[in-house]
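Input record, target 12 of the design panel.
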């Protein structure tokens, strides 16, 4: 009588290959998840910085006086506002100002840079 050799199951080599392929796939998926989380955090930070930049320009442009340079911190973000005089009216009542505001965090100081032009009152009433 002949004995039959039955081959049920996997060999050690097949199991090791399957483990290596699985580990590569898990590494790729985890790397993608970490990258997506980092991008999401960066985008959220940029949106907050842009909101702060708009609000600072809108609140500071109504303050009468000559162009100024200001710095501040809000919601753990640092902002810098530089106003530059472009033109003055002949009566010296108004000045056209270009404001540049930069907002960012400590590790990314220039997340957002925003420029706006507006009229600023020189005469205090």
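The sequence produced for target 12 reads:
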């Amino acid at each position: 009588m002949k004995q039959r050799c039955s081959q049920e199951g996997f060999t050690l080599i097949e199991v090791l290959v399957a483990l290596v392929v699985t580990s590569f796939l898990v590494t790729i998926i985890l790397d993608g998840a970490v990258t997506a989380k980092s991008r999401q955090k960066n985008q959220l930070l940029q949106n907050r910085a842009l909101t702060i930049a708009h609000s600072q320009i809108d609140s500071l442009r109504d303050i009468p006086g000559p162009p100024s340079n200001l710095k501040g911190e809000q919601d753990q973000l640092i902002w810098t506002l530089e106003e530059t005089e472009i033109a003055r009216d002949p009566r010296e009542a108004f000045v056209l100002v270009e404001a540049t505001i930069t907002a960012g965090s400590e590790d990314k100081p220039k997340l957002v840079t925003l420029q706006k032009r507006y009229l600023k009152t020189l005469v205090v009433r």
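The two ends are 116 Å apart (CA to CA).
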